[in-house]
């Protein structure tokens, strides 16, 4: 979300989309920065909670991720690399804005990249639910908020008069809404995991 929201801020200079969308992107950068700071301060120590749910699990631990990321991207144990990356990322975007920021192709690329990153955020959750045949740990209240938010967003994008919303927002917003709707289908199919646990317990008794 930080990568997408920072890029959306730069996208505004070329697209000049509606001010509420710009304010939303700025608030998102602020909130996600605070959340990253809190997460980095409260990470479990190395070796604790040997599971894939351990946040920021580095490749040097006993239980690394199945597919290590190049340069351990966003899996660093030290705090400074996260801030160094974000500052470097913003610096590169500033340089590109000065050099080619006025070009229509670059402006469109900014929008579609930023909003595609944001729109694909539900995909890991969809895959995990499909793999485990369960929505355990995924709160129904979160899903409901996402779907309600999508409804308001689509109404604003397509039905509000006098707004300037580029097609990048509309297309990526539609894709994200479909992903959230499918998460709702998965929750209806799999439940919160209690059903699978009950079936496993019955199978154990039969055996």
From TrEMBL:
For the biological process aspect of GO, one term held by this record is:
retrograde transport, endosome to Golgi
Q: Identify its membrane topology class.
A: Multi-pass membrane protein
Does the record's keyword annotation contain Transmembrane helix?
Answer: yes
UniProt-listed Pfam families: PQ-loop (PF04193)
What's one GO-annotated cellular component?
cytosol
Which keywords belong to this entry?
A: Membrane, Transmembrane, Transmembrane helix
**Matching InterPro entries:** PQ-loop_rpt, SLC66/Scramblase_ANY1
Q: Where in the cell is it found?
A: Membrane
Transmembrane feature ranges: 20-41, 82-100
Alphabetical list of PANTHER family matching this protein: PQ-LOOP REPEAT-CONTAINING PROTEIN 1, PQ-LOOP REPEAT-CONTAINING PROTEIN 1-LIKE PROTEIN
The entry's protein name is: PQ-loop repeat-containing protein 1
Source organism of this protein record? Cryoendolithus antarcticus
